Amino acid sequence: MGITTNSARFIFVSFLATWVLGVEEVNGDSVHCKYPAIFNFGDSNSDTGSISAAFFPRPAPNGVTFFHSPAGRVGDGRLIVDFIAKYFGLPYLSPYLDSFGTKFRHGANFATGGATIRRSNDSLFISGISPFPFDIQTVQYSNLKNRTTMLYTQAKRNSDIRKNFPRPKDFSKSLFIVDIGQNDLAAGFRNMMMTKEKLVAEIPDLMNLFSLGIQFLYQQGARTFWIHNTGPIGCLPSTLFDVRNPVPGFLDGNGCIKSRNDMAKEFNRQLKRKVSELKAQLPFAALTYVDMYAAKYSLISNAKKLGFYENLNICCGSFKDGVRKYCGNNILKNAAFEPIPAPYGEGFFHKPSGRDCDGRLIVDFIAERIGLPYLSAYLNSLGTNYRHGANFATGGSTIRRPNETIYEYGISPFSLDMQIVQFNQFKARTKELYERAAKTPSERSKLPNPDEFSKALYTFDIGQNDLSVGFRKLSSEQLLAALPDIVNQLAKAVQNIYQQGGRSFWIHNTGPIGCLPVNFFYNLNPPPDFVDQYGCVKTQNEMAVEFNKKLKERVIKLRTELPEAAITYVDVYAAKTGMIGNAKAQGFTDPLKVCCGYHVKYDHVWCGTKSLVNGSAVFGSACENPSTAISWDGVHYSQAANQWVANRILNGSLTDPPIPITQACKRH
Ligand SMILES: *[C@@H]1O[C@H](CO)[C@@H](O)[C@H](O)[C@H]1NC(C)=O
Ligand SMILES: *[C@@H]1O[C@H](CO)[C@@H](O)[C@H](O)[C@H]1NC(C)=O
Ligand SMILES: *[C@@H]1O[C@H](CO)[C@@H](O)[C@H](O)[C@H]1NC(C)=O
Ligand SMILES: *[C@@H]1O[C@H](CO)[C@@H](O)[C@H](O)[C@H]1NC(C)=O
Ligand SMILES: *[C@@H]1O[C@H](CO)[C@@H](O)[C@H](O)[C@H]1NC(C)=O
């Protein structure tokens, strides 16, 4: 369900669960399936905390009836998926995107509020559509399975890994629940250009994508599927809110929007047929189609008789007098995707390591210099350790909240403000988990010590993607005019961490973006004055210099605003241009050449991917000697380049004040 259209559901949750599960009992024969684990896919109907961990925590009074505090769910208590888990005597499912205190021994939940079957171009921040559609959820499952299997075989008996992850042999015996589709319909209703006929015409495509998702899971060993159809979307109070003076026949006898429910029924009719087809296609699968619509509609029709209050009332929030007040508050108004493939990582980790590089990044060299382990990513819920910090950075992140999805140009939904929200949540939950883990040293050893947050170093390296979005969408005057706002939002993030007790900040400026080889992939014959003496795009580097000037001024101002902070401004731009300008003397090859990938004229095969060129398959492989390359894949620097830059910036020769990173906690 859409993040903004789900306030009504909890009214009937507990009733429905007994109903649906009851059906199984009635029909059940003597075989009683004993599932070792449950893997769930879907939207906010069954999200047990992924969106909450990855974006905004769900506010109180969500969770009030059962968990007595917000529990990552939209609803006052448990969801249907929780009742299913309970029915089988299994624990409530941990959300896959929650890397903190979660256990996957008996399954995982990939559902995210606002998820769709089809990848959408709508952004979470604008329309509440999740960046994790069904296909990504199935890839996450596959990723969990592969990595669990690897970790499990490496782990010793009785290790946490074995306690917290499913056994490799359990996957194929598990129950796979899918409840998704409502947001695809909701998005269609929202889209003014989408007539009823057009939306109906799109359903077969949704069915095919749905079917591909199930087949993919089947290929990964899944066998038992429990598939919910979609509910009577026309009965959701939030959609009824916009209805004024309905013409006769617009609403049905229960006050629901008839045409929307008809659409849901059409969706369900085709879904049921698709499930039958899948039964024929997948010989070892047991697929059950579950008529959620009938259960929910029956509940709504008989609400009063069954002791619920009437269907069009909502329990939390209000949709009155032209104002929508969402439950709790309204902030929601407005390892996580596909794994990075080989040959990424080959130069150091000898396998993909989640980094957009052949090896280590500058942040890894920082950890080495300070004598700490490499940081675990906040969004990685498998085998991570946060004792010495966490990494909230995600590829494609901007400072400002993006207006586009990751599926268009790779811009991450985790903009800096989201990363700060994640950090705040991380810090708050650390305290609770740390206390809870007092008697289990092995768990405690993976958590930060709550007393150490104020002594930690907070590093920032962000802004380049704000420029690249700007180059794409704005004139240079518009982008120039936006720089103060962009820089201010970075300053706000620093202020926020300061309020949370952070005192030491290490802030990288942005690099010479015009020198990224990607600039020339699609611009084969740039005019002569387009580039500077090094062959970099002049206007882009000028913009980066302007950004950096504004950033430095803002950092100087921050020092007066935050009297106890030690803030170091780091001139990464100077280090990188120094490297690019002296590439040969420093032992590097042409800085505008790409080490990994195939980019010849109009043919582009990105690093680690495969594609047809002139009718034959080409793999985007790595160059012979990555340690002499500056650019790894056209966008990201190689490990050798990162190391070179780290060596220049970490000893203080390019920082303001000029102190090495090991002394950056001291205010100057
Ligand atoms: C999203 O945008 C891409 C490129 O602009 C387009 O090809 C695709 O059809 C769009 N998807 C949807 C669901 O609108
Ligand atoms: C997991 O491994 C299987 C089998 O090798 C492969 O087909 C699948 O693509 C892998 N999944 C991911 C997410 O890499
Ligand atoms: C997104 O759109 C809003 C409204 O049009 C605008 O104010 C904002 O600056 C845009 N954000 C970005 C990053 O372009
Ligand atoms: C594809 O064809 C072009 C032009 O004939 C040629 O220059 C190029 O090397 C070919 N690429 C591959 C991968 O065969
Ligand atoms: C920092 O290291 C670079 C590269 O090794 C060196 O050129 C520079 O002199 C050093 N600066 C300081 C302040 O130690």
UniProtKB/TrEMBL annotation:
It comes from Cannabis sativa (Hemp). The lineage of its organism: Eukaryota, Viridiplantae, Streptophyta, Embryophyta, Tracheophyta. InterPro entries: GDSL, SGNH_hydro_sf, SGNH_plant_lipase-like. CDD domains: SGNH_plant_lipase_like (cd01837). Belongs to the 'GDSL' lipolytic enzyme family. Residues 1-22 form the signal peptide. This is Uncharacterized protein. One of its GO terms (molecular function) is hydrolase activity, acting on ester bonds. The keyword Hydrolase applies.
